[in-house]
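Recall the central idea of this unit: under ordinary conditions, the amino acid sequence of a chain determines the structure it adopts. In this exercise we apply that idea directly, starting from the sequence alone.
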Amino acid sequence: MDYLNSDNSGGVPSLDNEPYYTLMLNTIKETFNNPDILNERYGYVSLSGNGKMLVIGSPNNISTENGYVYIYEYDDVNNIWDPNYYVLSDNGNFGIIVDIDRQSSNYIVIGNSNTNKITIYEKINTNWVTYRDITINEGTIQSASLSGNILVVGTDTNTIIYKNENGNLNEIQNYNISAHSVSISGDEDKIVIGDHNRNTINIFEYTDTWTMIQTFTGETNEQIGWIVKISYDGYNITYGAPFANNNKGLIRNIMYKTNGIWEQHVNDITGINDGDKF
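Accordingly, the structure predicted from this sequence is:
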């Protein structure tokens, strides 16, 4: 999901737009109540920046042992989420990673931790076809984020940055930082890496090369970095810490101010009960 920019522009429709979200939830419920797919394991989600495309991953179906990815698009003419969703499938944990290109909703990223493969799909007419795929040889894939020509892949041992050069995905940077979650800004010049094993959030910026410009360390046992998202303009970061506050969990938002200073922007959103791991 693309969060609002630092000036509150962009991003998905406001949470006040109840009809939009009610339609989205009802469409999803109708799909998931289909008895043919009740054995699937949902929960891996990406929503485009304009709020018009929703991608849901469902890896490792209990019955078929395949993974599925469902692609929904919003119908502006009829003001509904088109019930004729598109389905992609492959073996095992296909769909354990899903991400929509920050610059164009004609490209999506899907990861399969069984094959350790990241695949970029391109929409051509009404079909989604393989554009490029890569097999990761360092660690087990955990996350991926795409913006234009830059793809960031996080594994349990490394963070790897690829660049699309003349149709080829070439590795341009490799860091010994495990990344349960990664996110790249829409303008391709900032990356945030969540390393919950080290209880850190790492921010990188591109000038002539990728350089770490800031590291945040959570409180003891918070395990920050399970999920991270950076805004399109790269000045707003949201991250999750499910083990904070006696395992209640929290979501925190920080914003870039001036002179390299990042500050908390709004109050934390926290779980209600101990053990919620929100």
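The CA atoms of residues 106 and 166 lie 18 Å apart.
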